[in-house]
Amino acid sequence: MGFCSSFNLVIKIFQSSWFWFFCFTLIFFLSLDFWSWGQQVSLTWFYLPTWLFYLLGLQLVLIVALLVFSLTFWETLSK
Question: Rounded to an integer, what is the distance from CA 44 to the centroid of its chain?
Answer without folding.
Answer: 24
